[in-house]
Amino acid sequence: MLEGHVFRTFLRAELQQSVVFQLHEFFHGLSAPAFLFGAGLTFVISTRRRWIEYHHWGEPVAARMRRFLLIIGLGLVIHLPYFSMRKILIDASTADLLQFFQSDVLVCIGIGLILLQGSVFLFRTETRFYVAVSLITVFICFLTPFVWDVDFLKFLPLPAAQLFNGIHGSPFPLFPFVGFLFAGAIVSWEFLAAGDRGDERQFTRRLALAGEVLLLTGILLDVLPVRVYPTYNYWFTSPAYFLVRVGALMLITCGFWHLACRFRETPGLLTVLGRESLFVYVTHLFLLYGSAVNPQLNLQVILGHDLDFGAAVTTLFVLSGVLLACASLWNFLRRDHLAVYRILQLGGSGLFLYYFFRRDF
Q1: How far is CA 105 from CA 128, 153, 215, 353, in A?
Q2: Phi-psi map region of 218: left, alpha, beta (phi>0 left; psi -120 to 50 alpha)
Q3: Which residues contact 191 (CB under 8 A, 6 or more apart)?
Q4: 226-240 as b/e, with b when 16 or more CB fall inside 10 Å?
């Protein structure tokens, strides 16, 4: 994710036209689906441990919903058009509001996790939940081209309209991207069930085979001369590309499972990055692109968009080191100095909200 954003942002235009960079773009296109896929994986792992508790409203569900709403809130903060609530209410144009309410990865994850939690409420048994999520994933895959032909802004409030498709600028709308989160939930459920039976290795073989089948199916669907959709866009809405990406994610999951079996001791830094992935994601966006809070103090403004390959790689390594250090410190405070962690967390949030609601411009 970080490598792709750095190269896409800073590498000079002629280098981005090369065949190598276009191949790079294909693999970089897997980072957001992988983020969503991983969110589905972890949702099922945490849910299955406390399945009964998540069937009714109580503190476990309330705490979970607060986390999901925080994720959505962070997604909105990243796209604030102005660092002033008053200016947004008075001066914000339609374009500003479309930017503010766009569905990015965090919003898509937050909404998707809320939908999964709602499914746990609705379908009380594991089998019903699994079947429902599987069917919804299939529907999302094959209905996405139709959904992208609808201008929801004509009959829905703007915040809701931005969730469904990308025709007004949402980079990661629910169709098709929440399907990757649901696919991760399905794979996680199957893996845990295989663990109960003691046949994880056999499951990974079946998962790898399923990934290969989905990859080939997606490729074949694209080359077939038959077209069933009024508008067909392979890179954004087509079921073919959805299947290719899900298949690739399944194969990647199998690969990492085998690596984990071979190297039982996970490097500490990788564990920290995994635990603090949300912190790293939000921080790197503020550092790279800025926001309403720091519109000029960011790397995009400072470095420009005309770096050669060597300078871009250097920027990547320096930024990676900074983020790793920040994530390690944040994880250390969370683990060993919770009081300080809470003070920084609540204090930073309080300062942000104070200035956001008090500023006139």
Answers
A1: 27, 20, 23, 23
A2: alpha
A3: 200, 203, 207
A4: eeeeeeeeeeebbbb
Q: Which domain holds residue 143?
A: 2-265
Q: How far apart are CA 274 and CA 202, in angstroms?
A: 26
CB 21 within 8 A of CB 15: yes
Alpha helices by DSSP H, the chain: 2-10, 13-16, 19-28, 31-49, 59-78, 85-91, 94-100, 105-122, 126-147, 158-164, 174-197, 200-223, 239-262, 268-275, 277-289, 299-303, 309-336, 338-358
Contacts 24+ apart (CB under 8 A), 100-103: 100/76, 101/76, 101/158, 101/159, 101/162, 102/162, 102/168, 102/169, 102/170, 102/171, 103/75, 103/162, 103/163, 103/166, 103/170, 103/171, 103/172, 103/173, 103/174
Residue 193 counted as domain residue: yes
Question: For 2-19, what is each residue's pLDDT tens digit?
Answer: 888 999 999 998 888 888
Cβ atoms of 86 and 360 closer than 8 Å? yes
Query: How many separate domains does the chain show?
Result: 1
Q: What is the pLDDT of residues 144-159, one digit of tens each?
A: 999 999 999 999 999 9
Task: Give the whole-angstrom CA distance, residue 171 versus residue 159.
Answer: 14
Say which residue, 311 or 228, is predicted with more confidence.
311
Q: Is residue 155 part of a domain?
A: yes
Asked if residue 241 lies in contact with residue 234, where contact means CB atoms within 8 angstroms, the answer is: yes
Place of tokens 């399907």: 179
pLDDT level of residue 266 (50, 70, 90 thresholds): low
Query: Is 330 a member of any domain?
Result: no
Q: How confident is the model at residue 261 (pLDDT cuts 50, 70, 90)?
A: confident
Task: State residue 117 phi and psi, 5-degree precision.
Answer: -65, -40
